[in-house]
Amino acid sequence: MVRLNRIYTRTGDDGTTGLVDGSRVAKDDPRLIAIGEVDELNSAIGMAIAALGKGESAQAALLRTIQNDLFDLGADIATPGDDFAPSEMVLRIVPAQVDRLERVIDALNEDLEPLRSFILPGGSAGAAHVHLARAIARRAERAAISAGRAAPLNPAALAYLNRLSDLLFVLARALNAGDAGDILWVPGAQRQG
Question: Which of 48, 54, 137, 156 has its CA 20 to 30 A from that of 69?
Answer without folding.
Answer: 54
